[in-house]
């Protein structure tokens, strides 16, 4: 099945014919001739039809999905907290905290 570049995107559908009735098998929105060939190969032996997208499908086809990025704020806060705890432990062990803040034992 050959389509010209100005016809894309289109919907290609595969149908199984049994007792003079068409049974729907699959459909896919394609944007290039290579995708049409892949679909046709996958459903070889079936009747392949192409149709234009309707206005609803065109709007859904143009929806862009982007992966939301998680900010690593939790990881950053955990690292900062660990560094502060290590510095306090070192300051207490060396006696710097006791001398600086006048804490006597």
**Quick check: average pLDDT?**
82
Radius of gyration: 32 Å
Q: What is the overall silhouette?
A: rod-shaped
Instruction: State the low-pLDDT regions, or none.
Output: none
- Helix percent band: 40-55%
Q: Number of helix segments? A: 4
Which sheet architecture does the biggest sheet show? 3 strands, antiparallel
Helix-strand sequence: EEHEHHH
Helix and strand content put the structural class at alpha+beta
How far apart the termini lie comes to: 89 Å
The fraction of residues in strands falls at 15-25%
The total strand number stands at: 3
Main sheet: strand order: 2-1-3
Plain-language structure description:
With 105 residues, the chain is an alpha+beta fold. Helix content is 43%, strand content 24%. The chain has a three-stranded antiparallel beta sheet, with helices on one face. A hairpin with a 2-residue loop joins strand 1 and strand 2. The radius of gyration is 32 Å and the shape is rod-shaped.
